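Two folds, back to back.
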Amino acid sequence: MTRAERICQFEQTPTLRGVDLLSLEVRKAGGHATGSAARPRNCTQLPRGAKSARTVPDVITRERRESAMLVKIGPGMKSDDVVDLLLACHERIRSFTALARAAGDRSDVSASEVADACSRVERYFTEALPLHVRDEEDSLFPRLHGLSPEVDEALLAMKEQHAAHEEVLGVLLRVLSEVRRNPSGVELRAELALAAERLDRAFAEHLVLEETVIFPAVRQFVAPAAQAAMKDELRARRGPKTFT
């Protein structure tokens, strides 16, 4: 499989035993999302092409099943809007983080399924996530910097958070590798769940900052021709089969 084909794989929401794992925890009272899925009410909408929420299948644990919903980004989402593509990347970040946590938490899956999930999460965070960081730092940052004090503050925070994520990601990747080699290890899988939870917390503030301040600024300040150039840069980093 070529590098472009591997990256194209990450356009699909990850699953474990056929379950879409991009779950948004929703409180019964008021229906507001919790955890990394929580967003302010004025948050940017999900990308065009995202499927509507639906009930989580019964394989999710009883405690979470009653209050969970799913949002899925399908493979190869078609869009001419660069912000939609960046938002779709964020949903994949959330979904692969959820897959890592499920590989540690779930007791109803086989060792081979756990090992496969670990392998897929490793590939995503070592191959695809760095491209998204480049999208934001090399394509987005220079086009927005200097246009608004509020946006400049958010851009600087974005870069600081990218650097801070490296340590947390490093821990997760180490544990993923260990669980992949020993998927039946109970203590290792518990460590994986904790590492994924830690990463989930690290990403939560970061993703919401970008979705509520930085991405809307692209639509507000960046000319259509420059947005098209950004999209071309995103595609060039991944290969022709991605973002089509």
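---
second:
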Amino acid sequence: MVPLWHNDGMYLLNERPQTNMSQLSEKIRKAGRTEPAPLGFAAAVATKARPTMLSGVRLTDAGKVVDAASKGADFVILDGVAPGKLKGLDKANGAAIGVSGHLDREACAALREAGADFVILSGTSAPATGLLDEKIGRLLAIDPAMDEVPLRLVGDLGLDAVVIPAPELPLTVERFIALRRVSALARTPILADVPSDIGASALELLRDSGVAGVIVSDLAKLGALKERVDALPARGHKREERSEATISSQAATGHDHDDDDDDDYDD
């Protein structure tokens, strides 16, 4: 199944089947899952909470992938790296490895065969044939300010995630709403580039806006970012409860209107 990130930070599924779920997609799914509080004896046992957001790094040198994995990277993006440079990625200790670029179907297939877990198409000007290989995770770099209709249609592409440039900080309410707009319309998890010194509060706001993972370009700062991400508090349930109440209210209102229409027809 293709992962979708609900605009309240909840992990959802759509009905379109995916040939093979990428490692990145599985990581996003686990980070987005809300775990119930343990009961009974389990509540007394100290357990390490699962991070609610992924930490990634953008590199140009495939030789640094293992180092990135050792610093806790959940995923690594290699910009413009050729398939032949991906040897030895099996030593990346579970980090999902992807390549970004102006990639067509043949390039995606070559990267998949070389061991890449996912590809990032460089934007809406990238060859559309890059969307056809469903045996590799597919992401798309987008402009978060794109018009509503194209943004909605992005949600129908069966992508593992979309990638956006670093949001302007500090996040104002207006900028926060703009991010939630992307999440709500694209119905797809978001990975966002961020400055390596981003603070915990900004990370929490990004997560609550629908960002599933953050990306830094400074490998030396990755470990500190990972610590801040992993220390984020669990998601609250207030927005989730409000959403359910709104849906219930809309459903009830819709039912009343249908009844009214039926009554008018009978008359």
